[in-house]
User: Which sequence fits this backbone?
């Protein structure tokens, strides 16, 4: 019996398989959407503000996933939020163009959201200004933060916000924008330093879109290719994007 199977008593769904079917491009087109919908239905816990890694957690079945079964059900990789996996789920949402959902989930797992009230902070128990590697997801531990400061999830969170939501893409010295944002975001700006040059990027969203770039201007000049080769030798460039 494999992990992440509906036939299983435990681990019927696994966020990594659901997300990476989209991120890798390996999933069939229709199944990509189904996989993310299933993730939302079974792994997103809005009450505790987490995205679980798998569900139900390993406990008494004959499945042997390795060391994670030694964790109390609902903690760390055994059915809690393992934050790497939560962030990959958000990336998958942006790849499918779901700006509303991506923005909602990104905000939901932001640690500051676990400390808006004294009650929430008492439950979370760890620092609200750094990413926790894990957040527990079951019983009396639900919503309690785990290991902080050391996790690579922080860099994934940063990249997801800058690259996949705000859409700043740089490849081989070429800058272009692929925003995937909630439709109520009417504008935002980015300041980017490249060598001795500065790029002031203003994104306007007058029509309440979630994806797509209609107009790309650099210092007032329309750029049909909607991208620009970066120059590190100095200068200030004003990039105006309209979605």
Assistant:
């Amino acid at each position: 019996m494999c992990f992440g199977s509906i036939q299983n008593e435990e681990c019927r769904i696994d966020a990594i398989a659901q997300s990476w079917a989209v991120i890798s491009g390996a999933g069939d087109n229709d199944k990509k959407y189904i996989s993310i919908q299933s993730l939302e239905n079974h792994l997103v816990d809005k009450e505790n503000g987490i995205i679980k890694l798998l569900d139900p957690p390993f406990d008494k079945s004959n499945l042997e996933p390795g060391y994670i079964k030694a964790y109390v059900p609902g903690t760390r990789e055994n059915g809690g939020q393992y934050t790497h996996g939560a962030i990959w789920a958000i990336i998958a949402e942006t790849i499918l163009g779901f700006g509303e959902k991506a923005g909602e989930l990104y905000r939901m797992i932001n640690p500051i959201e676990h400390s808006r009230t004294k009650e929430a902070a008492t439950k979370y128990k760890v620092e609200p200004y750094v990413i926790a590697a894990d957040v527990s997801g079951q019983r009396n531990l639900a919503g309690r933060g785990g290991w902080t400061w050391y996790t690579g999830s922080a860099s994934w969170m940063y990249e997801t916000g800058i690259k996949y939501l705000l859409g700043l893409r740089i490849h081989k010295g070429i800058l272009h924008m692929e925003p995937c944002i909630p439709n109520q975001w009417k504008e935002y700006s980015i300041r980017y330093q490249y060598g001795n040059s500065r790029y002031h990027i203003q994104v306007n969203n007058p029509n309440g879109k979630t994806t797509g770039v209609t107009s790309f201007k650099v210092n007032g000049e329309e750029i049909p290719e909607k991208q620009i080769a970066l120059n590190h030798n100095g200068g200030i460039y004003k990039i105006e994007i309209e979605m």
